[in-house]
Write a structure and sequence with these properties.
binds 4-oxobutanoic acid, 3-OH-isobutyrate_DH-rel_CS, 337 residues, 2 domains, HIBADH-related_NP60_sf, binds NADPH dihydro-nicotinamide-adenine-dinucleotide phosphate, glyoxylate reductase (NADPH) activity, alpha/beta, Rossmann fold, N-(1-d-carboxylethyl)-l-norvaline Dehydrogenase, domain 2, NADP binding
């Protein structure tokens, strides 16, 4: 493939795999999650939110606090209660949410649940119609996103994929990064809502480009975490204080917020869940399939994926993904016996 050509700001174009084009535009928002009232926010209409887990709940909460008219649904109904006490309305199925709202967001666990909630029985597609929009912010593969998009647009509604970079705290603080692709007019229409929930947004062109961007980012993150865990354990083995290793890393060229944030608790073998380990393993699995589809070797990510699988088998699926360090500890123990 020819080298990518970049046209600098405000829009960047470059060749994309499989002959399609990737259109990138980035806007940094000066958003705050709490300052804008609905009227000043620039979005008129009712907003649905499906999926109120670690990420969905604070995202929906920020929309309510910004003055939006929000209707929520979650498979486990009790998770709606905190949002209802903030003023959200409740509907009993995704279809009822989407039929009562102008734009519906979905933040689901994985490709299977994202598809089911959008396209299954009583799914959001059943309530869609021309003039409405569906914004899927879950992390899924491009094929699933395209299937969901096809079903939604078959009703005459518009579809935008918008997976997010950033975890529990950025979701609470309205500082997510949106990786959007799909219907550009829907992107523009929901931009004020994205700006309540996030600090920046990228528009990447065709449906699928947001999904694959997210998988590339999380592939890198998953491997970085494994490498960091190896460093912490090695430092301990050779008699160094791992807390000092965290401090040294934080001052150098390989500093990443993730290391400073998670390092101290990893040293104490504590893994309070921000990004569940099962989701990181899902993202590596999807990244591996993506790489295979274009014959791109990603051996480091493949090795990292194996460790996350071991961690899952140790019962750590719902812990933070930093608990992958426990899989390395288990390897040491098994090699000593
Ligand atoms: N946590 C993080 O740091 C980040 C996560 N992501 C991605 O965002 C998505 C959500 O993550 P997160 O909030 O952490 O995950 P959670 O596991 O906390 O929440 C998952 C949500 O999906 C719902 N769900 C799961 N299976 C089904 C199903 N079969 N049918 C209907 N609903 C279902 C859950 O409902 P119920 O409550 O009933 O279980 C819950 O609302 C994932 O794709 C993840 O990869 C992206 C960026 C950061
Ligand atoms: O998908 C999860 C991303 C977590 C993060 O960006 O910190």
């Amino acid at each position: 493939m020819a080298a990518a050509s970049f046209l600098l700001s405000p829009r960047v174009t470059l060749p994309l795999r499989r002959g399609s084009r990737l259109l990138v535009s980035c806007s940094a928002s000066s958003s705050s999650s709490s300052s804008d009232a609905a009227g000043g926010m620039g979005f008129q209409g009712r907003v649905g939110f499906l999926g109120l887990g670690i990420m969905g709940a604070p995202m929906a909460s920020n929309l309510i606090k910004a003055g939006c008219d929000i209707t929520v649904w979650n498979r486990t109904k009790s998770k709606c209660d905190p949002l209802l006490s903030l003023g959200a309305k409740f509907e009993s199925s995704p279809a009822r949410v989407s039929s009562s709202c102008d734009v519906t967001f979905a933040m689901l666990a994985d490709p299977e649940s994202a598809f089911e909630v959008a396209c299954g029985a009583n799914g959001a597609a059943e309530g869609m119609a021309p003039g409405k929009g569906y914004v899927d912010v879950s992390t899924v593969d491009d094929a699933t996103s395209k299937l969901i998009g096809k079903r939604i647009t078959s009703t005459g509604a518009s579809f935008l994929e918008a997976p997010v970079s950033g975890s529990k705290k950025p979701a609470e603080d309205g500082l997510l990064i949106f990786l959007t692709a799909g219907d550009e007019s829907l992107y523009k229409r929901v931009a004020p809502l994205l700006d309540v929930m996030g600090k920046s947004r990228f528009y990447l062109g065709d449906v699928g480009n947001g999904a694959v961007m997210k998988l590339v980012v999380n592939m890198v993150m998953g491997s970085m975490m494994v490498s960091f865990a190896e460093g912490l354990l090695l430092s301990e083995k050779v008699g160094l204080d791992p807390n000092t290793v965290v401090e040294v890393i934080s001052q150098g060229a390989i500093n990443a917020p993730m290391f400073s944030l998670k390092g101290p608790s990893m040293v104490k073998a504590a893994y309070p869940t921000a990004f569940p380990l099962k989701h990181q393993q899902k993202d590596l699995r999807l990244a591996l399939a993506l790489a295979e589809s274009v014959s791109q070797p990603i051996p480091t990510a493949a090795a990292a994926n194996e460790l996350y699988k071991v961690a899952k088998s140790l019962g750590l699926a719902d812990q933070d993904f930093s608990a992958v360090i426990e899989a390395l500890k288990a390897k040491v123990q098994s090699s000593q016996h």
